[in-house]
Amino acid sequence: MSKLFDWLAIICAFLSIWLAILYNFIEFEIFNEYHSMISFVPVIAILSLGIYSVVTILWRVYNFNDCHKEAFELHAEIKEARADLITRGFVFQ
Amino acid sequence: MIIKYMKISNYNFEIIIIDDGSPDGTLQVAEQLQKIFGTEKIVLRPRQKKLGLGTAYMHGLKEAVGNFVILMDADLSHHPKYIPQFIKKQQNENYDIVTGTRYAGNGGVSGWDFQRKLISCSANFLTQFLLRPNVSDLTGSFRLYKKPVLEKLIQNCTSKGYVFQMEMIVRARQNNFKIGEIPIAFIDRLYGESKLGASEILQFAKGLLYLFITT
């Protein structure tokens, strides 16, 4: 089964439970009390998903290592390698 | 530098260089290296023109005599010092693939501005979210493969460019291959221009969608 169908299945399951509650196919005291809020559940879900995404991405960008030390080391090693190659008879253009 | 690190760790190796007719004299440099280090260590497999990453790997793989293959970019954005770490990791857990990751542990990049990082992290987040591959870096191309595993994956992968790397690792997951990770510092192109424009982003989006539907 492809990832697309995984996602469709989850979304369908979510929507059917939500619709069932919204149109009183499933009845509990608690659902009646919060009926107005329940109608906004998909909007709340999408919004919180969006906030979660933005926060996670920014957090990762913030924590993305800048490898200055490694870059510096690499430059030094390239110099070393160049010198070594020249002693072996390599001609740089 | 590869030879230096391989000699230190005492592994048997050969270096296969594929050049798709680049105009910058890569081939001439490679020929000189071959003269110095010998045709046993340095194997040249040049091609006339640019034919794509997948076929380049295929082309090099035909010549490979070892049991394990390491793919890396030759512009030094991938440091050879990680090769012994890749090999140790493979030996410890008998991994089918060991992949370098910029997004975990001490991994990272050098030479990227905020925008580049933002695009990269967003793309990575989206991919992780949609495909759940359990691999932290899908577009990296510094990897060690068991030779038969690589042969099998190449045959199943049809994407171009760096989406190819993504497809390889996602299909590897699909085939239940065992994948290990080594944090690497990616030093962005010391030589030449690194490209990330609208067309690369579009290519990525298409690739992601393709994998989303087919895997």
What order do the SSEs of chain A take from the amino end to the carboxyl end, as H and E?
A: HHHHEH
Looking at the structure, what is the overall shape of chain A? rod-shaped
What overall form of chain B do the CA principal axes indicate?
A: globular
- How much strand of chain B? 5-15%
Task: Write a brief caption for the model.
The complex is a heterodimer of chains A (93) and B (215). With 93 residues, chain A is mainly α. Chain A has five helices and one strand.
Commentary on this structure:
Chain A has 93 residues and is an all-alpha fold. Chain A has helices spanning 3-22, 29-33, 35-38, 41-63, 68-87; one strand spanning 65-66. Chain A has five helices and one strand. Chain A starts with a helix and ends in a 6-residue tail after the last helix. Chain B has a four-stranded mixed sheet with strand order 3-6-4-7. Chain B has a two-stranded parallel ribbon with strand order 1-2. A two-stranded parallel ribbon of chain B has the order 5-8. In chain B, helix 5 packs parallel to helix 8 (198-214) and helix 7 (163-174) packs parallel to helix 8. Chain B contains eight helices and eight strands; from the N terminus they run H-E-H-E-H-E-H-E-E-H-E-H-H-E-E-H. Strand 1 of chain A pairs parallel with strand 5 (108-110) of chain B, so a sheet runs across the interface.
Write the layout of secondary structure elements.
The complex is a heterodimer of chains A (93) and B (215).
Chain A: H1 3-22, H2 29-33, H3 35-38, H4 41-63, E1 65-66, H5 68-87
Chain B: H1 2-9, E1 15-17, H2 26-37, E2 42-44, H3 53-63, E3 68-71, H4 83-93, E4 97-101, E5 108-110, H5 114-131, E6 143-146, H6 147-156, H7 163-174, E7 179-183, E8 185-187, H8 198-214
Parallel strand pairs in B: 1-2, 4-7, 5-8
Antiparallel strand pairs in B: 3-6, 4-6
Helix pairs in contact in B: 5-8, 7-8
Features:
heterodimer; A: mainly alpha; 2 domains; 77% helix; B: 215 residues; alpha/beta; four-stranded mixed beta sheet; 8 helices
